[in-house]
Design brief:
nine-stranded mixed beta sheet; Serine Threonine Protein Phosphatase 5, Tetratricopeptide repeat; 45% helix; 16% strand; Spore Coat Polysaccharide Biosynthesis Protein SpsA, Chain A; 355 residues; 14 helices
Length: 355
């Protein structure tokens, strides 16, 4: 059976740290906490779970902090979690089983990372992340923000899920964006991956034109990961939509087809583009293409609602405007198979009146 060192970096996590550790403490063999400057009860809470608590001076570099935590590990594998992560019971059971069955030559075990949920607690955004790293392989974290360990070596892709249950904040955090801005001000030459995530941070903070600028720089370099290239095209179109540059949307979305087969989110955005022009027939074609795509086997980000719910509910709307009420009802019920929403119930009432 393999052993696991849980390696965490924390700061002012008194509200959620116990929740995280309670969900994993009975499975890991060692817990290492690296504190980057807490001023609350974080370290006192951590002491209830481990005596391996270390201070680390924050230098605006998440990789440096994670590498410090990894350096303290003594088990076969290093594992990371953030304080606002939770290990569901089913995932805990699967990880406990994996400890006994994992092949000796596996270097990295990935797990699904569910980072966003809707109001009904349905998954909205899912990615695949490196989660267990064989200590003797000597993996090193890279990038000061949106840090990662490249998937190099013998990788085992598990179906285990980690849920990111972030606390609702009264004000948006500019921490990550500030790190990138400081890097740019200092004249640092951003890598393709850093350009992509910098553009994402700008987009997430509503800086549409700046985000579009950096997404375009990223794409022009032609050095990005395929999944990031596709996502950049999609996000570029979103930026153009919000900055009222509709003439650029189609080109951005269609460029994604240069990298790989069509993705549902791109096809849906093409549908929205034509729907905004009241061209429901053309919009319907794109939504139906999205609805019939196979769910992707990719380690990239998956915008869950685009792979089922959105294309069907939007097909319902298009059918309705085109006078195809029977098909609209069918599409509405197809969307309901993915999740029940107020929109579906409203449509059901409308169709009941029409009938």
């Amino acid at each position: 059976m393999i052993t696991i060192s849980l390696c965490m970096i924390v700061k002012n996590e008194e509200k959620i740290l116990a929740r995280c550790l309670d969900s994993i403490k009975d499975i890991v063999d060692e817990i290492i906490i690296v504190d980057t400057g807490s001023t609350d009860q974080t370290k006192e809470i951590a002491k209830k779970y481990t005596d391996k608590i270390f201070d680390f001076e924050w230098i605006e570099d998440f990789s440096a902090a994670r590498n410090a935590a990894f350096s303290k590990a003594a088990s076969d594998y290093q594992m990371w979690l953030d304080a606002d992560d939770v290990f569901p019971e089913e995932s805990a059971r699967k990880l406990l089983e994996l400890k006994s069955t994992l092949a000796d030559d596996v270097d990295i075990v990935t797990m699904k990372y569910v980072t966003h949920f809707d109001e009904q607690d349905n998954p909205v955004l899912i990615s695949t992340r490196e989660r267990l790293l064989r200590r003797e392989a000597g993996y090193v974290w890279i990038d000061p923000v949106h840090e990662c360990i490249p998937l190099i070596g013998n990788v085992f892709y598990s179906d285990i899920e980690v849920h990111h249950k972030k606390e609702v904040q009264s004000e948006p955090s500019y921490r990550n964006l500030d790190i990138y801005n400081n890097m740019v001000k200092k004249g640092k030459d951003l890598s393709p991956r850093q350009l992509y995530y910098y553009a994402r941070e700008l987009k997430d903070h509503g800086k549409w034109e700046d985000a579009a600028h950096y997404f375009q720089i990223f794409l022009d370099k032609e050095e990005g990961w395929i999944e990031d290239n596709i996502a950049a095209c999609f996000n570029l179109a979103i930026c153009f939509k919000h900055s009222e540059q509709p003439e650029k949307i189609l080109k951005a979305l269609l460029k994604s087809f240069e990298y790989d087969s069509p993705r549902a989110e791109v096809c849906c955005e093409l549908g929205y583009f034509y729907k905004s022009k009241n061209d429901y027939a053309t919009a319907l074609k794109w939504f139906q293409i999205a609805a019939n795509l196979d769910y992707p086997e990719t380690p990239g980000f998956i915008l869950q609602d685009y792979w089922g719910y959105i294309p069907n509910i939007e097909s319902c709307v298009c059918h309705y405007h085109l006078g195809n009420h029977a098909k609209a009802i069918k599409s509405n019920e197809a969307a309901a198979k993915f999740k029940l929403t107020p929109a579906i119930e409203i449509n059901r009432r409308v169709f009941a009146i029409d009938l």
